[in-house]
Amino acid sequence: MNNSKNVLKRQHGLFVSICFVVGFLVGTGIFFLPGRVLYEVGGNVGLGIAAWVIGGLMIAPCVYMFSIFAGRYEKIHGFVDYSEVIVGKRYGYLAGWFFAVMYQPAGFAIIAWITSGFTATLAGMVRGDEMYLPFRFFISAFFMAMTFFMNYFAPKVPVRLNVATTVVRMIPLVLMGTVGVVVGLFVSRGDVSGIDTSYTPIVSMGNASLFAAISATAFAFNGWQAALAFNSEVKNSKRNFPIALMLGFGMIIVVYVLYFIGIATSSPSAVQQIMQGGGDNFAQGTHSAFESIFGQAGSILVGFMIISGLGILNACCLGMSRAMYSLGRRGMGPMPLRMAALDTVTNVPNNSMVMAVSIGFIWLFVIFANQAGWFGSFSFSLPDFYNFSFFGLLIPIFICFVMRANDVHFFKRFILPFIAIAGAGFMFATYWIGSFIHGIVYTVTFIVLATIGFLMKKSN
């Protein structure tokens, strides 16, 4: 089923495409992960910088491989297109189901939850308060609902908002990455003695703290995958989209490293606070770090982080609305005719969006249950689950590309894919090495959800 009436228009140029990539990448991950990275490396700023650089460089070959795919294959939804053409239709369906049910709705809920953490901090609430978790759950749900209604009823606004908030969310990063670096390095380098060490990271490799820190950076570098959903809406996409992917990702590595240096070298009290609990106290610690550099204006910049969260939440809603749509266009998945339908006025797949947001609320409840301790001593880390699943899905795609891409020269067919396989394989393996139990639970969860997906492959 490939109804020509349900085709999204090509309407985005190179600049907007770069904004999409940067907009999806610059989310809330960079604002809450510096504390965990610092914790993993024992406060060693040099090792922390190495973790961010190595983490970015390990994922960069995967991004580059997808820029090659973007220049060769395009149909409806980037990741699904590539999986389908390179591996096969059943694998393409699995990839589409993963994005529609696990990856994008889960990311939608996570970003809302992190944004609610900064909101709670500005509201004067701290971890341990009786109403702290209920407040964050309510605010997260409100942010998700608000974003959904805006995308549903005024879809042109979110596209413009994505470009605008991409600029806004860069402000705290650039300021901390310039002013913060200068002040931190030459005026008040942080003293990280006396840090709370009660936190036990999920991803750990014995004494190899650098590897644990590298794994922690993976979430901050997420987002470029979601931008793949827009490849068929980009003008001259076979040229512009690969450029947008690589330029956007390269810019982000530089900005993230500078921001980390600024945070890691701010006042001693802020550095200690941001590292407490292995980085769990990210909101209060980041607030203190910005106030130590910018004074009262630090609170305004934390407000920009909330805007950043809302911006990436909006971008997620834009992206995940295409997930079930891409399956429906192929005549697959639940209610394919309805999922493939576009609104006659707005040209947006509203039914697909409703499905994705509904699943997102289920994942939000999982996050709340985990934070509230409903799973007992087991911690179900939703970011780790979908990173674990995503990197696992990448490996067969790269392997099949090596086997089948007869028209590609040696370097792009063999060298780059094997580098990408090594990077994806390392990220996938760290979750097993860090905690075999978590690897089992994440695998079982993925298999259960994938089985449900295949049962609904032809469901009306």
Structural key phrases:
19 helices; single chain; mainly alpha
How would you sum up this structure, described in words?
- Helices cover 73% and strands 0% of the residues.
- By secondary structure, the chain is an all-alpha fold.
- Helix 1 (14-25) packs across helix 7 and helix 2 (29-40) packs across helix 3.
- The chain is globular.
Topology:
Layout: H1 14-25, H2 29-40, H3 45-72, H4 78-86, H5 89-122, H6 132-153, H7 156-186, H8 209-216, H9 224-227, H10 237-264, H11 268-275, H12 282-294, H13 297-320, H14 323-329, H15 336-340, H16 350-371, H17 382-404, H18 410-434, H19 436-455
The multimeric state of the shown protein is single chain
Largest sheet: none
Secondary-structure element string: HHHHHHHHHHHHHHHHHHH
Separation of termini?
Answer: 14 Å
